[in-house]
Design brief:
- The protein is mainly α and 192 residues long.
- The protein has two domains: 45 residues, Homeodomain-like (Arc Repressor Mutant, subunit A), CATH 1.10.10.60; 130 residues, Tetracycline Repressor, domain 2 (Orthogonal Bundle).
- It is 76% helix and 0% strand.
- The protein contains ten helices and no strands.
- This is TetR/AcrR family transcriptional regulator.
- Keywords: DNA-binding.
């Protein structure tokens, strides 16, 4: 198996945790999939929760890279960036292995906000909200933070809809909804 033992453990966890759930997958299953031993596992991770955090950090890095690439490729065109993000989301939701948002799933399994897992989830969600706020900043909206909150709500909804609903429609629906939120945010003062 290529890669370091730590990488193999994280890769195995990524596959198993996402497919079956964090609590349902034992350390022994991850060890078996990675082709290593329990002693070696504990050299790299002090606990299963530490492995869960590493798994989520990897998922967060991938999502950040994807959003960052979409924003960079759009070169200041907010609508184009949202289109790219929506296209990617729609494509991901249509894969047979799609199980929704790993961060929403993790939060459901780790309800205590003081755990390292929930703190990792919260940190990523804060980053996402900040990214949406930075994305809409060029539009000079009256309340970009509120628009970012709304975009996060849509993002959460598309993750659930992609898993529970018709995944072929989520990308287009997400883009339409994002555009409506931004138009509404631009006219927020008129509605008050």
């Amino acid at each position: 198996m290529p890669g370091s033992v730590r990488e193999r453990l994280i890769d195995a966890a990524n596959e198993l945790f996402y497919a079956y759930g964090l609590r349902a997958v034992s350390v022994d299953k991850v060890i078996e999939r990675a082709g290593t031993t329990k002693v070696t596992f504990y050299r790299h991770f002090r606990s299963k929760d530490e492995l869960v955090v590493a798994y989520l950090e990897g998922r967060a890095a991938a999502e950040r890279d994807g959003m960052g690439a979409a924003i960079a490729h759009a070169d200041g065109d907010v609508d184009e960036a949202l289109r790219l993000i929506a296209d990617h989301t729609g494509t991901a939701a249509c894969t047979a292995s799609f199980r929704g948002c790993p961060f929403i799933n993790a939060a459901a399994e780790y309800p205590d906000p003081e755990t390292a897992v929930r703190k990792t989830v919260d940190a990523h969600r804060a980053w996402c909200k900040s990214a949406y706020e930075q994305l809409v900043a060029p539009l000079d909206l009256p309340d970009p933070a509120a628009v970012a909150d709304d975009l996060m709500l849509l993002r959460d909804g598309v993750m659930v809809a992609g898993y529970l609903g018709d995944p072929t429609t989520v990308g287009a629906s997400f883009l339409r909804s994002c555009r409506a939120v931004i138009r509404g945010g631009a006219h927020a003062d008129a509605l008050r």
